[in-house]
Amino acid sequence: LATGPLAGRHVLVTSGPTHEPIDPVRYIANRSSGAQGTALAAALRDLGANVTFVTGPASVPPPAGVRVVKVETAREMLAAVEAALPADAAVFAAAVADWRVENAAGQKMKKDGSGQAPALEFAENPDILATISRMGQGRPQLVVGFAAETETVTAHATAKRARKGCDWIVANDVSPATGIMGGAENAVTLITGAGAEDWPRMAKDEVARRLAARIAAAL
Ligand code: C5P
User: Fold this and answer.
1) Nearest to 40 by CA among 18, 69, 11
2) Which alpha helices (H) appear in 55-166, and where do they start and end?
């Protein structure tokens, strides 16, 4: 049986990108590797939590010792998250596609020789973090979101916390000059109801361990 401060607690983590199909062989995606979400799931597991890890098609393998639920699209991710509840805490580290292709084709799209390119139409995806943050009965006690920003990080992330209705936001500056996106280090600001805390730049694994410890202390 697991021991540690999170023993007996169920924590849900979303991670990775989503893929939104254009046709059966093509999709829209983003550059998320899933590294920070994977490190976080491992750190929560190491504190004894029972972790459900809902992951899009990430480029790093999921951690051992957690329950892995693999999904492709944002709508599948929301359904998997809802099916995994109840949870004591939920951390939304996934880079969910904001839009899906509304007119995705049932068969592989073909060039028809006319020189005309197909027109894709987009529909907005559900916001999983906001949906879970705003559920009444059954809402996890602690809901944590992420915010990747390229400017005025704290102000934007503080506004995002209010807009989404989550308890904490982990904000980071993903401007290309920081080398954070796709890199091994992160420099985050933790926004809670008590204000903003700037953490020094450190390895993503260390960010994960500190955040897991804060989650354990809050539950
Ligand atoms: O609004 P933005 O995409 O910047 O918010 C990022 C946060 O919201 C992340 O925690 C991300 O996992 C979550 N999110 C979500 N569902 C979406 C879009 C974002 O859960 N459709």
Assistant:
1) 11
2) 74-84, 128-133, 153-164
> Whole-model pTM?
0.96
Give 166's DSSP letter.
-
Residue ranges for the binding site for CTP?
A: 98, 108, 126-129, 146, 160, 164
* Partners of residue 140 on adjacent β-strands: none
pLDDT in tens, 84-99: 999 999 999 999 999 9
Strand, helix or coil for residue 101: strand
30 is catalytic: yes
Q: How would you label 71-93 residue by residue, b for 16+ Cβ within 10 Å and e otherwise?
A: bbbbbbbbbbbeebeebbbbbbb
**Pocket flag, ligand 1, residue 145 (CB < 6 Å):** yes
Mutational pocket test of ligand 1: of 12, 13, 18, 92, the residue with most ligand atoms within 8 Å of the beta carbon: 92
How far apart CA 181 and CA 70 sit, in angstroms, is 23
